[in-house]
């Protein structure tokens, strides 16, 4: 596939290069594998309170965002001291998903050491600093959760000793030993950098050079069907571990400060290993809570493109018990990958799967849609 002609530069935000949102500079903090230590969480919480809007926002790539930043230089200093900016030249390309329960419960292999090794390997390669900010790596422990998240390059464990290499979600048939997984992913990413032209994602580029780069690391094999557990559901897991959902992916600084070590997931939830960490907070831990089905973009006043305060309106439909994403404009930022009702703000109301309804009848329209999900 020929690479598209890009009319604008890749402007994915980071900490050193923030995005100018309607409510002020927005900074995105990369968390390879979603891992955030308790000490780092406390630093991020203080930054949100002292320098931002008082909240920490989860992203669909298991990263964090701080909004309305008042002093970017001070933010950089604090995050660097906390070890959250280990390689400033590579900060926007440290996009690595990891199975969030790996090493805690289930899975065929513990991919946490691989996440750390891949992060170090990416940061050690000057050429990989030229990866687009949208390029995504994934390391799946075999349960198939992050393998379905559309990563450009993914290694999925088959057992403790080997795994499958996926390009844009498709199995390449290459079987790569666990000890070679990081080297294979780095070599494939380097091949993409050399040959991508103006492509931002692997799906937009010629895959042949990337596939060629994998030959030294693995052997082709018959492709067998692989099952997927999907995202870990909200609620207790085992041994005191719990998956919790912040309302609309937004954590108050006060709550984050008390959680201890956390793993942020690509589904805007957090994995908590300390028993009782979610007690007394607004985190949702009941898998039957109807609000879990409703997500929303930041909306007004945070985004100048939004036609409505979508989060306020989304609160009004949370009890409808329907899976829906409420967006302030046609970009539909933050929408989930799975099936959902499409709710987009327009002049005077919303379009629900293309049909206009007023704000006052939005909940009614969604309840009517519930029977079709």
TrEMBL record:
- Top-rank taxon of the source lineage equals Bacteria
- Short name of one Pfam family: NIR_SIR_ferr
* InterPro entries assigned: NIR_SIR_4Fe-4S (IPR051329), NiRdtase/SiRdtase_haem-b_fer (IPR005117), Nit/Sulf_reduc_fer-like_dom_sf (IPR036136), NO2/SO3_Rdtase_4Fe4S_sf (IPR045854)
Iron-sulfur keyword on record: yes
Protein's UniProt keywords contain Zinc: no
Domain called Nitrite/Sulfite reductase ferredoxin-like: residue spans: 27-81
Against Gene3D superfamilies, the record matches this protein to: Sulfite Reductase Hemoprotein, domain 1, Sulfite Reductase Hemoprotein,Domain 2
Ordered alphabetically, the record's keywords are: 4Fe-4S, Heme, Iron, Iron-sulfur, Metal-binding, Oxidoreductase
Task: Supply the name of the protein.
Answer: Precorrin-3B synthase
